[in-house]
Design brief:
Two copies of one chain form a homodimer.
Chain A lengths: L1 E2 L1 H14 L4 H16 L10 H9 L10 E5 L3 E5 L5 H19 L1 E9 L6 H8 L4 E6 L20 E5 L6 E5 L6 H9 L9 E2 L5 E2 L2 H7 L8 H18 L4 H5 L7 E8 L1 H5 L1 H17 L14 H13 L1 E2 L2 H9 L3
Parallel strand pairs in A: 3-4
Antiparallel strand pairs in A: 1-11, 2-3, 4-10, 5-6, 5-10, 6-7, 8-9
């Protein structure tokens, strides 16, 4: 089924108000959950909304908590998310990083003790739509083995980079695992192999069989040893700068809470003007588009292009949502 | 053969002085070429030194050119490398990023019109050894196809992250291709398959056969589509911030010159103290070390640990160098 954007946002808003969020924060969160679903990332939009409500009921997410600044060093600030709503905490952190960048060219907010931000790309887009380059990453539960190891001790620590580009910014938004747990499950349910190897089977062999990987949960980092190193470095940098939990420490908490996030903004259009920024991005993207496709008739998409197309389609036709999930969300209003 | 550290450095120094470098710059460059070789990265140390001399003779690298600041925005500065020596340009850029970070918590130097920095990890180590977190990346010639494309239009754009950790900092230093061209060639010469797939054969199939990949030069990005996106984003960010060449523009220059590099420093120990920084890194690394190894008797290394071991060994025993290459270098002194 498809739900119009405004209707979906209003449903989220009314539920969040019932759960004790102040109006402004509820509105921002409702918008983020709707945007994520609208952009084709329902896994971190409508589909994840019920679990967020569970976390609120469990006391993992405090609706009334607001982030506070703990230390300032000029262009870099250390914030405490106070275990508030992850998506609004992240949104205000990127806003603050942009304020700092508007003064100093670059700004950094390191936030500890916050919650799952849902779709990290949302904060990249937030920066890019205001003319900034945005970079951010989060750490996670231990959910991937380090290179050379069997046990899950590192996070898949998604990293986001975004740049201004007309109505659909350039956006990369990816976990450092080759596939998310959700993608592996979806392939198994559909009876499909993964398009490239995604983990290890019980004999320790690299495999594309989603069912075999689910038995070990030894997923592969992107680039094998390279992604393992990136994951460790991003976890360390975030935890150092924010004085927040490392992946290891989050693993001791039972649920994925009190995570650590880092936000960087660069004042691209503010420093050099919109026209210059557009000309650079145009030069690179048009060159990519001209490359011979690998498959006859294929098309080369720039990073973020697919999400932009999905968004336009869903704004017009309504946002696709799983009927069962939507019904369960509507029951919150009863 | 093995050459003692001091002897190797002095040979490089004397040659660079002959080529017209001022004493201080020649000394810093000689040290960097020696360090890279000593850490086990001869490909960007002694083995690359003759090509750098060729670039100087061709006029691609100007020994007398110094980088200059073109614009300052507070914690972010835009520099012009003036096509000077890549390694000393990069070293002074990271020094400047640290100076900015010492004032503002974070500092960024975006440098255009510079030359190949040899081993990017050197500038990460430079920051980490002074108590900073260092992040830097460079763009390159077009040497990898974008995801979905056949032609090489994106760079393998190496990215570096480093953090303080006793005598051997945590260090990741990796191109966004799964394997460098040099590694692919070395496997073919040794008659070995790559340990994981590294590119495409002539039928467009993903392969681990180094010879087949050399026929197409369609190398794989790390994480397939993910590394392709990362490469595009890093190229765009660097070029935007520095007003420098993009990968596409470097491709028009014939040789890999006038590249664009970005340097970020975070004042970790300055903000929070050495003891705190050590405790965070210690917590993560000791946890990794405790993970069950994938292979019986295996060992999990932290990123940068191997380079540190190699360095200690080579400082003691002398630095291994290919005899033929070393002879050709010595002939420069004749």
């Amino acid at each position: 089924m498809r739900i119009p954007y405004g209707e979906m946002r209003d449903v989220f808003l009314r539920i969040l108000l019932k759960y004790g969020f102040h109006e402004e924060k509820a509105a921002r969160a409702a918008e983020l959950f709707t945007d994520n679903t609208c952009d084709g990332v329902a896994s971190h939009g409508a589909n994840r909304f019920p679990r967020v409500l569970t976390y609120i009921r469990k006391g993992h997410i405090a609706p009334a908590a607001d982030p506070i600044m703990e230390e300032s060093f000029g262009a870099l600030e250390r914030w405490n998310g106070n275990r508030g709503m992850g998506c609004t905490n992240a949104s205000s952190a990127m806003d603050r990083a942009m304020e700092l960048a508007a003064i100093s060219g670059v700004g950094c907010v390191a936030m500890r003790n916050t919650n799952h931000w849902m779709r990290g790309g949302a904060y990249g887009l937030q920066a890019a739509r205001k003319g900034f380059v945005g970079i951010c990453w989060t750490n996670t539960m231990p959910n991937m083995p380090p290179w050379g190891g069997k046990e899950r001790r590192i996070g898949n620590n998604p990293i986001i980079m975004a740049l201004p580009w007309k109505e659909s910014p350039v956006l990369i938004d990816g976990a450092l695992a080759q596939f998310s747990y959700g993608a592996i499950e979806a392939h198994r349910l559909a009876g499909r192999q993964l398009p490239v190897p995604g983990g290890y089977d019980e004999e320790g062999r690299i495999t594309s069989d989603p069912g075999a990987i689910e038995k070990t949960w030894r997923v592969l980092p992107i680039g094998f040893w390279k992604g393992s190193g990136l994951s460790i470095a991003l976890d360390l940098i975030g935890a150092l700068l924010s004085k927040g939990n490392t992946v290891r420490q989050i693993g001791e908490l039972g649920d994925e809470i009190a995570v650590t996030q880092t936000f960087l903004a660069f004042n691209a259009e503010g420093m050099y003007g919109k026209e210059y920024v557009e000309s650079v991005v145009e030069g690179v993207l048009s060159d990519l588009k001209r490359a011979a496709p690998a498959e006859p008739g294929g098309e080369i998409l720039y990073p973020g292009e697919k999400e932009g197309r999905t968004r336009r389609e869903n704004l017009e036709l309504g946002i696709p949502v799983n009927e069962e999930i939507w019904e369960s969300i509507l029951r919150e209003l009863a």
